[in-house]
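Exercise 7.
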Amino acid sequence: MNLQLEHYRNVALVSSALSPETWPFDLKWLPKSACLVGGTVRDALLDRHSEYLDLDFVLPSNAVETAQVIARHYRAGFVVLDAERQIARVVFEQGTADFALQVGETLEDDLRRRDFTVNAIAYNPHKKDLLDPLHGYEDLQRKRLRMVSAENLAEDPLRLLRAYRQAAQLGFSLESETQQAIRQLAPNLSKIAAERVQSELNYLLGTARGTNWIRIAWEDGLLRDWFPSATLDRLLQVAAIDHVTVHLQETWTEFWSELSRTVRGTPKASEAKGSVRTWVTIAKLASLLPDDPQIAEAQLWRLKYSRAEIQAVSTVVKALPELRSDHAITHWSLAEQYRFFQSVGAVFPAIALLGFAIKLPVESVAMLVDRFLDLADPVAHPSPILSGQDLISLLQIPPSPQIGKLLAALQLARAEGRISTREEAVELARSLT
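Solution. The predicted structure, written as C-alpha cells, is:
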C-alpha cells in the first residue's frame, strides 16, 4: 500500500463523517459493496464536520430496496427521489442517507461521471478503503476545484455555477482549465430550472465568502442571463455591504442584530445549499437589480423567489431614490420621516444598510436607524392613541373609510408632536370631522 493510501486510511479511521459508529443505522445493514461518495467523503478528508449528517451511498444493485429495508427497520422516513435512476432517501432525526444505483459497470465508471475530482472519491466502510481514480485527494491538498471533464459540466450546466459556490464554501480556487471550460459553457446555464439556479445564488449572496465568487461568476458570464442589469459597480456595492456589516458587528451590535434577523415569509435554507435570508441578503440581492421596480420584480419572479422576498427587494428599490434625492435626510420634516417609515416598514434595516454602503451621509442614515431601534419612537413606530371603535363611540359617527383617515391623521399628529394625550386626540379628531 502506498503512503498516500495509508494516509487515506488513517484519516478515514478518525473521521466522524466516515465512522459508521456515528451513523443513524448499523453498518451490518449496508451491503459489502456499498460506498460513501461525494461531499460526505470530501468534507471528512478536509476535517469539516456538521451536526446534521448528509450521507450519500452508491450501490451496484438494490439501492432502493436497501434504503427501504433500513427505513422499515429503524422506522425512519422513506422517499424515492428518482425511480428511473433508482435513488431513494431515508430520513432520520440526525440526518439523511441517500442510496443511489451505481452509474456504469464499475464504481470507477460512476466516479468518472461526477462534477469535480474532490467529489469523486469513494469510501468503502467495510474495507476502510478509499477509491480515488481521479486524484481528488491531491486537489483537496492543493485546495482547488478541478473538473472531471468538460462533458460532465455540459451534461448538467448547474455544475457551472456550483463550482463557484463550492469554491466559496470550501475556500478553494478554480483550476484554470476548469474555469476556461466554464466560461465557454456559461450560456448553457440559462437552460437550467430557476429554482436550482436560485439555490446556488442564495449561498453566494448569503455569506461574505461568496461575494468575491459572485463577482467572478459575473465576469465569467454566468449571471448574464439571470441578472442582465448587473455591472461591476453593482458587484462592488455588494462588497461594500460586506465591509459595512463587519464594521456594524463590531460597533453597533443592536443594529447588527436587526440586520441578521431572518426575513419573515422566506424559505428556510439548509447550511449546505444556502443561507437563511436576512436583511443583509435582501440588500445584496437588490444591488444586482435594475432601478426600475417592475423590471426588478420580473427578474425575481423568473428566479422563483418567494413573494416575501420580492416585496422586500421591491421596497428597497423604490426607497433608495428618496434617500439619494437632493432633499437631504437631515432636512426631512417629522412628517416626511413618518411617511418614509410607513412606506418601508420592516424592510428598513436593508435600506439603511444600503444607505451606508453607497456612502450616504452617515449621520443622516444613523439618525433614521436610531429612530428605528427605539420602539417607543412615535415617528418610526407610531401607536394609535385612539382606536377606530373609540372614534365611533366618542364622535358618534358610523363606520366608514373616514375612520381610517382620522386614525392616520392622529398618528401623523402624534409623530409631529402636536398631540400626546387622548384628550388632545379627541379634540383634533372632532376638528377634522
